[in-house]
Amino acid sequence: MTTPSRDPASVLPDSASQYCPVHAPSDHPPVTRPRVGVLLANLGTPDGTDYWSMRRYLNEFLSDKRVVDYPSWKWQPLLQLIILTRRPFKSGEAYRGIWNQERNESPLLTITREQTRKVAESLKALYGDRVMVDFCMRYGNPSTESVLRRMQAAGCDRILFFPLYPQYASPTTATANDQAFRTLMKLKWQPAIRTVPAYFEEPTYLDALAASVREAYDAAESRPEVLVASYHGVPKRFLMEGDPYHCQCQKTTRLLRERLGWKESEVQTAFQSQFGPEEWVGPQTVDHVAALARQGKKHIAVVSPAFSSDCVETLEEINEEIKESFLHAGGERFTYVPCLNARGDHVAALTAIIRRELSGWC
């Protein structure tokens, strides 16, 4: 498996000096001065759009018990013999439509690297070289384990692990944390680690989200009649079993609407990316936008508050499939509001959260 090339500007330079510990004998070898690490974690990306790259990525993703929690004896034969025989072709086609050809990588990787670079610059201005910033992916490369090991080798004895998901969900936040803890289980000398909680209620995050919507509306030829906040779906069973994701998504929409000062009918919630036979939380975005068109709505906008970076679920699914559903049902104009990505106000929001969570360490 090939590892995507890394932009050296994406992390702070490893300039921690070597020193000899206090009270060490004169012949004690120098060691790396302790530092604090900040590790941003995103969902993941295939290394390429070809069949085998897609199959490796989908196998890792769909074998995760946090994502599909059916018994292995039932799920794995279906996954290995049927789904992974066909799905890589369809997924590869979707990725090819949005692929960053210049860097030969997915937009998610490009954007996460840029977010990391800007957060690193902000933290360097505050803490100098005492804080090292990097990023990892739950699935694919750069892997969580490889980056955690690199940070530890660079002297990070305390690491803040930051899953870039505003709302907590078992298939996103929890599995990212799981992977970090699995790495710690392999280390003889574990760094201390903190995890960043869900941040959908953070005022700075909501301000950035509302600003992105206003900017999209200002740039549109006409004002959209409805803003649909589309979140990645989960089985309804997860909600019944205690996962707070659905409730946090509903609250995010309400807080965004209050920030915007709009009527309840002008900002609505829907969920995308359903698969499998069981019931999922709804309404489903692809059906909901078609229903809006049939109700006479000619212009709608869609925003994705659960995604910190644009990816295949936003650039391909929303801006192509869901858009097509709305237009086919009689809609006339469709406005996609980009994810917050590496916007300055988003980076400022992430930096503010990191500063708070580093309390006592820096």
Q: In words, what does this structure look like?
A:
The chain is an alpha/beta fold and about 350 residues long. The protein folds into 2 domains: about 30-200 and about 345-355, Rossmann fold (3-Layer(aba) Sandwich), CATH 3.40.50.1400; about 205-335, 3-Layer(aba) Sandwich (Rossmann fold), CATH 3.40.50.1400. The chain contains 11 helices and 10 strands. It has helices at about 50-60, 70-95, 105-125, 145-155, 170-185, 205-220, 235-240, 245-260, 285-295, 310-330, 345-355, and strands at about 20, 30, 35-45, 130-140, 155-165, 190-195, 225-230, 265-270, 300-305, 335. The strands form 3 sheets. It has a 4-stranded parallel β-sheet with strand order 4-3-5-6, with helices on both faces. Strand 5 (about 155-165), helix 5 and strand 6 form a beta-alpha-beta unit. Helix 6 (about 205-220) crosses helix 8 (about 245-260). It is globular.
- What proportion of the residues is helical, as a percent range? 40-55%
| CATH arch. level architecture of the largest domain | 3-Layer(aba) Sandwich
The span between the termini is: 37 Å
Runs in which pLDDT lies below 50 for 5 or more consecutive residues are 1-16
Oligomer: single chain
How many helices in DSSP terms?
Answer: 11
Q: What is the alpha-carbon Rg in Å?
A: 22 Å
Q: Structural class of the secondary structure composition? A: alpha/beta
The top-level CATH class of the largest domain is: Alpha Beta
Mean pLDDT: 92
Major beta sheet, strand line-up: 4-3-5-6
Give the domain tally. 2
Shape: globular
Major beta sheet summary: 4 strands, parallel
The total of beta strands comes to: 10
Enter the CATH topology name of the largest domain.
Answer: Rossmann fold
Strand % is 15-25%
Spell out the helices and strands N to C. EEEHHHEHEHEHEHHEHEHEH
